Amino acid sequence: MLNPGRGIDEHGRLNTSTHAELLIVDEADRLKVGALEQLRDHHDRTGIGLILIGMPGIEKRLARYPPLYSRVGFVHHYKPMSADEQAFVLARSWPHLSLSDTDDYATAEALAAITRITSGNFRLTVRLVGQIERVLKINNMSTVTKEVVETARKNLVIGSM
After folding, report:
1. Tens digit of pLDDT per residue, the chain (161 long)?
2. Are 113 and 152 in contact (CB under 8 A)?
3. Which of 47, 83, 110, 111 has minimal CB crowding within 10 Å?
């Protein structure tokens, strides 16, 4: 949105001189060529911005499809979060887990276990936190410990460890 708070005309239509339309496609690496062709065609017809989110290597797959790849403006690779970044995200995104007190030994140990297990991968962190919440609820617990994190990890399918 170029000018927040403005942009809808008297007919309820979006004024494209003040706003930009954007289509975000997650897990785009799972799309077949036909679906990618539809996205390219939609982009060509409407001028809508298009963001494709996928696993590493999606750009190599798109490179084999020149009609779409010629429209790629840039590719951004997300780096894994550092331990400090991960602690920040955990404290702000899941405040009810009380992982903000890094001076507390149990909290520091739990954060270290989360960082070790996820290697800073945000998506895996989200999945692991979901399992941590489940373990806490099932066991009627309120404190995240290293043992809780390890139990949650055992219930995840996360590939080779």
Report:
1. 455 555 666 666 656 666 667 889 988 888 998 999 999 888 888 888 888 888 878 888 888 888 888 888 888 888 899 989 999 999 998 999 988 888 889 899 999 999 999 999 988 999 999 999 999 999 999 999 999 999 999 988 765 44
2. no
3. 47
